[in-house]
């Protein structure tokens, strides 16, 4: 099957080079039994790609079994995958076949494979290599003949480095890797995909979509689409239903864009209108003012995130070192009912003197102290910028946990994905 026929059959819209490379690779491996690993952000269409691979494979007449590994509780995932015998655990009132048994002769799609518990990874490796497995509570060896497609929005190799994912399983899954590009890397495909969704929803809801302005088109293309195609589809549906028979301009469109506009900058802040688009006397127009206001709002959000990051890291550090007294302004925040546990906001603490005076009340040996770095950084005559403060906290967290990014992200109160993005932004290893 050629690329054009593939796109038409599965409704894949776009002419970008990135999309063409993906389709060519998928078509090339589809009619084999080789294991495929789909890698990409949430919403890029990993499930659609997996279904397409199955539909043009030699196993298309048998079942495609879809398993979301991240949605199954750790205590029952082994039973869900491999089945169990009657009486093998409390509540097992009858024998039950697992997903690998149901998929025999067909394809099994293991979505969010990076969230699989360690004890199940061993058994996954065995069934991938030999097709052999045991039901929970059974000593009878069973076999299955399945084609495996796995997907993840995580960096599996990074998980291997952090010892949360087996290296041998990684190599077994990484036979053929297909990286699905995010929508922001396919700007030329945004409008065609949007039109496709609008056409579908207009027919579904018996609605009329009267189009949108050139400025709205530019906003659609420049928007980052953090939710990728899934978010684009959601926006199209909302516009068709809620803005029925309305001509869409930027004001109407902006109400449905939850993320940020972009122009390639690492901070993702919106870009002001071009100089020649300003009015003749050099003053900012209404559009410029709106962009500036949105930038300030986002900057305020970033400051709030930074405060929380600082609070989480200091709180984690103090707790582990059994410091007897927190700085008073942090202690006041911790004692607030709404700030229970580590999820605290230290208010203006980052702007105050968190340094030698704060540690003076603590009983810490010289071998344990990390406050020299904090003292030098926070008691300097020059107030550090938000970016420098954020970079400093990330460096301290990574140093404290010897490069373990999972523990560092937990101490900072941010997700691992956010930490990876920050490391790339600041050029940190």
Automatic annotation (TrEMBL):
Q: Which UniProt keywords apply?
A: ATP-binding, DNA-binding, Nucleotide-binding, Transcription, Transcription regulation
Could you say which residues form the signal peptide? none
Lineage top rank: taxon: Bacteria
GO BP term (any one): regulation of DNA-templated transcription
Extract the InterPro entries matched here. AAA+_ATPase, AAA_lid_NorR, Homeodomain-like_sf, HTH_Fis, P-loop_NTPase, Sigma_54_int, Sigma_54_int_dom_ATP-bd_2, Sigma_54_int_dom_CS
User: Which CDD domains does the record cross-reference, listed alphabetically?
Assistant: AAA
A single GO molecular-function term is: sequence-specific DNA binding
| Residues covered by the Sigma-54 factor interaction domain | 12-241
Name of this chain's protein: Sigma-54-dependent Fis family transcriptional regulator
Q: Which organism is it from?
A: Fodinibius halophilus
């Amino acid at each position: 099957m050629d690329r054009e026929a593939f796109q038409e059959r599965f409704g894949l819209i776009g002419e970008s080079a990135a999309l063409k490379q993906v389709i060519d690779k998928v078509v090339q491996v589809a009619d084999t039994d080789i294991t495929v690993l789909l890698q990409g952000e949430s919403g890029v269409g990993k499930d659609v790609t997996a279904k397409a691979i199955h539909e043009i494979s030699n196993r298309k007449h048998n079942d495609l079994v879809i398993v979301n590994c991240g949605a199954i509780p750790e205590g029952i995932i082994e039973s869900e995958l491999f089945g169990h015998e009657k009486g093998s655990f409390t509540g097992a009132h009858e024998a039950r076949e697992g997903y690998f048994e149901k998929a025999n002769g067909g394809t099994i799609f293991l979505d969010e494979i990076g969230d699989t518990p360690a004890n199940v990874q061993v058994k996954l490796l065995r069934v991938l290599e030999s097709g052999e497995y045991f039901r929970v509570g059974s000593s009878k060896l069973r076999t299955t003949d399945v084609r495996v497609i796995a997907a993840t929005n995580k960096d599996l190799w990074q998980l291997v480095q952090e010892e949360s994912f087996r290296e041998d399983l990684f190599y077994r899954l990484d036979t053929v890797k297909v990286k699905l590009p995010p929508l922001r890397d396919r700007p030329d495909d945004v409008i065609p995909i949007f039109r496709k969704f609008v056409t579908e929803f207009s027919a579904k809801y018996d609605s009329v979509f009267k189009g949108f302005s050139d400025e709205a088109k530019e906003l659609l293309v420049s928007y980052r689409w953090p939710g990728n195609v899934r978010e684009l589809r959601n926006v199209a549906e909302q516009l068709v239903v809620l803005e029925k028979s309305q001509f869409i301009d930027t004001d109407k469109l902006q109400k449905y864009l939850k993320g940020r506009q972009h122009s390639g900058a690492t901070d993702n802040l919106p870009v002001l209108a071009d100089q020649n688009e300003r009015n003749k006397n050099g003053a900012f127009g209404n559009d410029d003012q709106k962009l500036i206001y949105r930038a300030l709002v986002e900057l305020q959000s970033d400051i709030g995130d930074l405060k929380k990051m600082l609070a989480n890291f200091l709180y984690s550090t103090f707790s582990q070192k059994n410091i007897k007294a927190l700085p008073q302004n942090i202690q006041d925040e911790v004692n607030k009912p709404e700030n229970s546990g580590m999820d605290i906001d230290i208010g203006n603490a980052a702007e105050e003197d968190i340094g030698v005076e704060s540690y003076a009340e603590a009983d810490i040996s010289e071998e344990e102290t990390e406050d020299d770095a904090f003292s030098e950084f926070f008691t300097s005559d020059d107030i550090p910028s938000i970016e420098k403060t954020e970079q400093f906290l990330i460096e301290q967290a990574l140093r404290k946990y010897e490069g373990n990014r999972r523990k560092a992200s937990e101490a900072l109160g941010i997700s691992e994905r956010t930490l990876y993005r920050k490391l790339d932004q600041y050029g940190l290893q």
